[in-house]
Amino acid sequence: YIALLHFCGLNFSKAKxxxxxxxxxxxxxxxxxxxxxxxxxxxxxxxxxxxxxxxLRAAVSKRxxxxxxxxxxxxxxxxAGSCMPFAKVYLHPAWQALATQRGRWIRQxxxxxxxxxxxxxxxxxxxxxxxxxxxxxxxxxxxxxxTDASFSGLGGLLCxxxxxxxxxxxxxxDLGVDPHDFHIGELEIATLxxxxxxxxxxxxxxxxxxxxxxxxxxxxxxxxxxKCPGMHVCLRRLHNIMARDSFLLRGRHIRTERNTGADExxxxxxxxxxxxxxxxxxELGATAFRRVMPVGVAELMQRxxxxxxxxxxALQRRGAEAPTSR
Length: 326
Prior knowledge:
Mean pLDDT: 78
Low-confidence stretches: 1-24, 322-326
Oligomer: single chain
Order of helices and strands: HHEEEHEHHEHEEEHEHHEHHEH
Largest sheet: 6 strands, mixed
Distance between the termini: 59 Å
Helix content: 40-55%
């Protein structure tokens, strides 16, 4: 926001000093985005919202649309997404369709139409609502929040400022999930999603880092997209949680030997809870413990498996249709 004010030729210090006397009509338009001086916000102009809604409603029910119309829609949404962090998570299927499909028409998969439906919901109900807290990532707090997953189970914990450690742990089989249907990256990011859903009420209007010992999960969070369809399903769910509770999250990699607490929770063994409690008291200064349980695990993992299987089937069909070399 500050950089945009400077590009518009505005004195940010003066604008901030005069913010109390500013009215809702004090605004500037830069690159098609409204800058509201009094609220220190940026917002999509009403005419652009209506244009995007018209294009989306026409596209959401179609199996295929002309490439030029598709490119125009993606450009409009790319501009709209500049007002929301991580918006390109929901443009990833569109960019993938443009990169992989040739010809004058773009076939719209179910994933693409679901992404259009998300954009419709956001533009209809969330434009003008602040979805993030203004704070630099370098100053963002590093929460005492750890997650880990293995083929034996999953676990996570959060230490609140008053010294209470909220934690969860379970085996995948007890939650109705066969872990061998997934690779470890999918299990790790899914555990982070369940943990964010459980602890999100502590994070409202904050930016924060979370510890994770899986490098691929940290890369997905940093790049805001994943080539693995299962991990991308989890990423979309994670950003829905962040938008719902108004917080922003990035992962920070930690070596496995430093992730002792979550590691003990995700690998059930005799005495693993006693070792976890001892570690939390020594490392985190824990004074009390409270166990919580993740919800919706089987439902999300079923979606991950469906996306994974759909990609495998598509690659198999593509290989069958390809001409064989002599």
